[in-house]
Amino acid sequence: xxxxxxxxxxxxxxxxxxxxxxxxxxxxxxxxxxxxxxxxxxxxxxxxxxxxxxxxxxxxxxxxxxxxxxxxxxxxxxxxxxxxxxxxxxxxxxxxxxxxxxxxxxxxxxxxxxxxxxxxxxxxxxxxxxxxxxxxxxxxxxxxxxxxxxxxxxxxxxxxxxxxxxxxxxxxxxxxxxxxxxxxxxxxxxxxxxxxxxxxxxxxxxxxxxxxxxxxxxxxxxxxxxxxxxxxxxxxxxxxxxxxxxxxxxxxxxxxxxxxxxxxxxxxxxxxxxxxxxxxxxxxxxxxxxxxxxxxxxxxxxxxxxxxxxxxxxxxxxxx
Length: 320
Known about the structure:
Radius of gyration: 18 Å
Strand order of the largest sheet: 1-2-3-5-4
Oligomer: single chain
Strand content: 5-15%
Structural class: alpha/beta
Number of domains: 2
Distance between the termini: 25 Å
Largest sheet: 5 strands, mixed
Number of strands: 5
Helix content: 40-55%
């Protein structure tokens, strides 16, 4: 989920605004000072060798919406425990933890079999006009892709930062580094500027649909069927939009996954609109209504017409 429409700035992006000028400020993946100060996921604790189990709660969308964590919080999603939600206290820690994963798995014009080192990752982020915070506003990955990331990083002797090593510990604790593991990781940041409370709710909703795509085969099959049923013109419109968002348009599975998430589960024109696709509102409404009407009946289906946020958010961070 991406976003670059706010100052100072996945997988939602604010509709195109003038990009920020690149600055010399880089919260470097390898800088000890940043890692020591940020705390939360993979902070100073790792450097001091602490390896206790990471606490994992179980929460509904409403409970996650209502939270405002001071520290990184991990939860199983109540409707589908195979979906694990990481709720970060800010965009910086989220970026330090997952931007390198994003570069490998789904960012355009980057290698799909090479984990970037710190220098190459910094260049990749800056080349598309982003910062570590804005590269993605929300993330989603299936267990197998995360396992592959860490396998490649080890094979290629890539030095990972403490936040990424924390993520590896979490995946190992979940059993997701084992062959054949099934699971979906979705993430979101707390409502700390530039992220607002309403943005946070939309990001979560969008990412939940990705989680379902990864863990419910019938839903993935439905999304693929819908994608294939689109006219060439409509499909091209989605591909063009997703290209502007920096996604790898050669990955058809990624295209149809993002299409369902934006079309149905991103109910905010700040993030997605008919104009973004170059079509009328009536055309977009027809596509959306048709998609919802044909959805298989399971826990995600009622969320398609849910009003956001589903619960009132807290105004200040709250420790676990």
